[in-house]
Amino acid sequence: MQTAIAVTSADLVLPPTDQHTPTAALLPPPDAQPLDAALADMQVLLEQHGYAVVLYPASLPVAHERRLHTVRSVLETDRLALLKVGLPPLGLAVLVRQLRQLSICDFSAGIIASAARLLAHYIHAGAVLNSVARLDRVPVSLKSHAKSWVPGTQFGVLANPSPELVRIGAGELTGPQFGNQLVVAKGQLQSDWVTATLAPAWHCQAVHEAVLPGESPRWWGTPKLVEFAAYLPDITLIYQLVSSVKREKCSWCGLEIIGDRCGFCAAPLLSAENRTGVSGVLNQGTPMHQSS
After folding, report:
1. Upstream peptide bond of 61 is cis (omega within 30 degrees of 0)
2. Of 123, 127, 221, 233, which is most buried by a Cβ count within 10 Å?
3. Where are the domains of the chain?
4. What does the chain look like in DSSP terms, one character per residue?
5. Among candidates 81, 90, 80, which has minimal Cα distance to 117?
6. Picking from 105-114, 131-140, 206-215, which range would have the lowest pLDDT averaged per residue?
7. 124-235 maps to which CATH number?
8. What is the CA radius of gyration of the chain?
9. Distance between CA atoms of residues 70 and 72, nearest Å
10. Distance between CA 66 and CA 64 in Å, rounded?
11. What is the pLDDT of residue 275?
12. pLDDT at 10
């Protein structure tokens, strides 16, 4: 049975790369859907797919996030994973599409949910900004803040996998060390730096355009931006990457997982000592990248 992938905004659903990639279910905010309807929709989704993995941005309004947890609590289900992701909006949309691709492979729901943390490390997500004065999700120096007030200054910012900031024309952003493709979403900023400079420097195999997610201006602190994300485009390589990680069984809910934390119950993987009955401590692991 195919695991369902769900999102909190329609603009997190990028066009499929092939005719086999399924779409994602949309979970509207409380002001757009009554609780009874949200419960009924999720019940149908779980009946049709068995399990559902919901990906939502760390910047999601509190009321919407509370709705997600309310639905899971009222349904008293352990078949619904709620994954709060710190990627920028376009990077999150790329991750959503990769999980949509994985959902039709021979992976269990637990593997698909825990694969999100693994795949997030391979997404290089950033933006070109005309100002970093209101950017609070990536570390910015006071010097950069001062330069952001100089007319015409533009910045290249990388939020994931590691934060970086350069002034356009005076530095380069660290790119992926693997074959990649780039997706670009244009806001109100006039700039061809991503396609003319960044894409060649990162040896991008192809560049695709997308609609700018509605959350992007708030996430980056300005509507004058061009957002981008480089990623592994080949589902075969993504499949091999996920398959190469050792599989474990969650000690709490029993699902098969990869990595050090279950995507469904959030329980950390027990250390080897605990799994063999010897006194030890929980291996807390490293959380999925969260911007400060």
Report:
1. no
2. 127
3. 4-109+244-275, 124-235
4. -PPEEEESSGGG-PPPSSTT----EE---TTTS-HHHHHHHHHHHHHHHS-EEEEEETT--HHHHHHHHHHHHHHT-SSEEEEEE-S-HHHHHHHHHHHHHHTTSS--HHHHHHHHHHHHTT-EEEEEES--TT--SS---HHHHHHTTSTT--EEEEEESS-EEEETTS------SS-EEEEEEE-S----HIIIIIHHHTTEEEEEEEPPPTTHHHHHT-SSEEEEEEE---HHHHHHHHHTSPEEE-TTT--EEESSB-TTT-PBPBPHHHHTT----B----PSP---
5. 81
6. 131-140
7. 3.30.1180.10
8. 20
9. 5
10. 5
11. 45
12. 96
d(C-alpha 289, C-alpha 292), whole Å: 9
User: What confidence tens digit (pLDDT) does each residue in 29-66 have?
Assistant: 999 999 999 999 999 999 999 999 999 999 999 999 99
- Orientation of helix 235-243 relative to helix 109-120, angle to 10°: 110
Sign of CA dihedral 46, 15, 235, 284: negative
Give the pair of three-digit tokens for residue 172: 């380069």
Which tokens hold the place of 82? 């709620």
Which residues are registered as beta bridge partners of 57?
85
Contacts with 45 (C-beta within 8 Å, 6 or more apart), sequence order: 4, 6, 25, 52
pLDDT in the model for residue 145: 63
Q: How confident is the model at residue 123 (pLDDT cuts 50, 70, 90)?
A: very high
